[in-house]
Design a protein that fits this description.
This protein is an all-alpha fold. It is built from four helices and no strands. Helix 2 runs antiparallel to helix 3. It starts with a helix and ends with a helix.
């Protein structure tokens, strides 16, 4: 009879230990599932980072146009030396530019104007 009682007690203890082990593994699985759901939610809610403004260089034509306009305005303002520098910079940086013929004509005109003074 004592043996039967001990077997029941040992079986009950083994059942309790097994139950706690199962609860622990279920709890760990649920925790992993919660973390995965949370990470996916955060990934969906996180806005995409906008590209940095400096990563977009201005189009080369805009630089060429600005140099041409600045050189012509300097020539009109009576600054032929500055105008020659700007035309020269445009022709040096962008020799194949669509503004190159205008820059060459302006450069020649400003050289004549500088020679007269």
């Amino acid at each position: 009879m004592k043996t039967l009682v001990w077997l029941v007690v040992i079986g009950a203890l083994a059942g309790i230990v097994y139950g706690f082990a199962r609860l622990r593994t279920r709890w760990a699985e649920r925790r992993k599932e919660r973390e995965a759901r949370f990470e996916s939610f955060i990934a969906q809610a996180r806005p995409e980072a906008p590209p940095p403004v400096s990563s977009f260089p201005p189009p080369p034509a805009a630089d060429e146009q600005l140099l041409l306009d600045a050189a012509s305005k300097a020539g009109q303002a009576g600054e032929p030396a500055l105008s020659l520098q700007l035309y020269g910079r445009l022709l040096e940086r962008y020799p194949q530019s669509r503004f190159a013929p205008q820059a060459q004509a302006g450069f020649a005109e400003q050289q004549k104007r500088l020679a007269r003074t």
